[in-house]
Amino acid sequence: MNYTIRKAVETDVDAIFRLITELAIFEKEPEAVIITPEMLRNDGFGNIPKFHCFIAETPEKVVGIALVYMRYSTWKGEVLHLEDLIVNEEARGNGIGGALLKEVIMYGHELGVKRIGWEVLDWNTPAIEFYEHIGANVMRDWHVVQLDEKGIQKYIEKNR
Fold it and tell me: Which of 37, 92, 116, 143 has the fewest CB atoms within 10 Å of its CB?
């Protein structure tokens, strides 16, 4: 498959949104997507971008994205967080995911970050095996902890 990797531009927002929706369906949570293309446009391409995105595209369409943003580790300093690496189902198996991850790693290196981190679902065995193969440490003894919007509101109401 012929593809190129490049930095996303504002006109890619609809394709980015399409792939985010595809990922949510793959992860069996299509109703969890509340972001809109307009939010992506404002957050990623406004005056102070909140994320950076790489695009994988064939001559026909965008087939993959890697969306990253900066975090700060109290142990390491500046770190890069890979929020999502998404490859369209029909384009998988062509090295696109690896090429996007390479771009993220090179970007993190250019920024001088001390770590690049991301999460992977415990049932996504092909992704886990791929990440371990490239030398990533899949930390099975850690749990992802989140407080969603409803949980935040409930906490606020109980603790005023």
Answer: 143
